[in-house]
Amino acid sequence: MINNYIRKDLAGFTPYEPELGSYPIKLDANENPFVHNEGLLNKIKEFIMDSSNITRYPDTTSSLLKNKIAEYWQLKAENVVCGVGSDQIIDCMLKVLIEPGDKIVFPSPSFSMYKHSTVLNHGVPIEITLNQDNDYNYDLDEFIQVANKEKPKAIFLCSPNNPTGNVLDNDSIEYVLKNVKCPVVLDEAYAEFADTTSVALVNKYEHLVVLRTFSKAYGLAGLRVGYALGSKAMIDGIKLGMPPYNLNTISQYVGTLIIDQIDLYNKDIEFIINERKRLASELQTINNVEKVYPSEANFLLIKTNKSTLAKELKEKGILVRNFSSHPNMLNCIRVTIGTEEENNKLIEVLNTLL
Ligand code: PMP
Questions:
Q1: ipTM topping 0.95
Q2: How many angstroms separate the alpha carbon of residue 50 from the centre of ligand 1?
Q3: Fewest CB atoms within 10 Å of the CB: 82, 92, 185, 341?
Q4: Among candidate residues 202, 162, 223, 200, the one with its CA nearest the CA of residue 28
Q5: Considering only CA atoms, which residue is closest to atom 14 of ligand 1?
Q6: What's the 213 CA to ligand 1 centre distance in angstroms?
Q7: pTM
Q8: What DSSP designation does 115 have?
């Protein structure tokens, strides 16, 4: 049986396979609901029409993009590494950190790739449960205690946390950094929608790595551009795990275009933050919505009395993320903040279903 060749410890492991197909309203993956401006789209068209941008291998180090990112954050190029989404950076980092059996600490619930990549890279996941009754806020002393006892190869913290939306401020991050020795990976995929970022701490703590992405606030999920910021030592380490030619030429180019016009996105970001506030307060008035968790991201976690809600919404053409069977998120769905029309439709349909 050819199956015998596949690692035995992966039996029961499910690949990450988000929903396929097209839905009139797609609120399941925390993407940006807006369209890019024509100026940007025309530049991309022109770029693709130059055949050498396709026939030649990409710049392995994404040097132009990396320099622009460094300049944006007032860091050096040696403090930046780009990847095929932050997903790839998580995986490459774990590749170089983990020797078989090493532990990796992360919160639960949180972004599923921390566990996925840990297991694939022969690590042992240690999940620290965030308390639902306390709006999933982090108990950082627990993280520090576990880190000091278990001696993990890294701790992941996600702020705003996906799928719960809560954040860790600078003082909290610094508290962890002062009390643990191992690498601390702070995933800031949604930080543009929050009041806080800890990028400034990169210059101060050698063991901090901050992950950022163009997939959310900057509407580039389809081109897969993510990056890590950290000390030269940590960034050099991550690079060891990177495959050659990872980020394609078009993605690198579009990433640089986005940085060149980054202020244009402020109005979309502001709109999404305002819609998040409106949606949260309107959802709270719906029958059988038991809780809308406070969120500083572009999504809301909602607890209702119905385990079949995500399925019923899907039948009505609205795709959301279903967490209803997760033991720490029973009957919860996560909805991305969409356009005004999409959000209105969501409220209208929820009023009929709940
Ligand atoms: N981190 C978090 C917390 C996320 O939610 C996501 C996307 N779902 C990612 C990282 C990965 O983003 P990307 O690979 O698109 O950069």
A1: yes
A2: 31
A3: 341
A4: 162
A5: 85
A6: 7
A7: 0.97
A8: H
